[in-house]
Amino acid sequence: MNAPLPRSQRLFEGFSPQERDEILSLGTPQVFRRGETLFREREPATTLYLPESGRIKLTQLSAEGEEVIMRYMAPGEVFAAVALFPGGTYPVTAEATERSRVRTWTGEALHTLVRQHPRFEANLLRIVSSHTQEALSRVRELATENVAQRLARTLLRLGSQIGHREPDGAVLVDRITQQELAQISGTTLFTVSRTLTEWQEQGIVETGRQRYRIVDPGRLRGLAEGG
Length: 227
Known about the structure:
CATH superfamily of the largest domain: Jelly Rolls
CATH architecture of the largest domain: Sandwich
CATH topology of the largest domain: Jelly Rolls
Shape: globular
């Protein structure tokens, strides 16, 4: 029997544990090494992916040819739903940032999955819709908000996507460089470093090597809202 996946409640909403295990059994487990590419932007979309361990980075190329980080996928977060639609292409490149085990559905297995479990497809499309809304929000933020707001939102978003809540209410985001924070927030490494130093002095975050402990999520949320 497959172990329950964290963060996967939305995907398996309305299913019994037995149904969930049946869905997972239709997929094929694959292991990707750190730095290995699962698929590239604009390649034909043939496969649906569900990480079971590790972490996957989704990126796009800008008009200038620079890599833009769109999202990190944690265990239990399905992606590449474009594979459901004939003739689709991947809108992003997916890369494992650490050794990752991923459940995949392709070809007949994918068709069988959505045919036998229409609720799964409905759940999946709701998740895709939420990801689309998030992407649109990021575009608006880059166009209308100052750097501090964007960085605060980035940390909060990463906390939701890949963070770990601690017993005292703090949220830990790790294995993310300051350069990556700058890239996601649309700013410079210098500005990220300076802003994080200020927030640490104010007791909002604690920073370490590729780790950020959000000590006061409420105050950080206030900064994200322009407070």
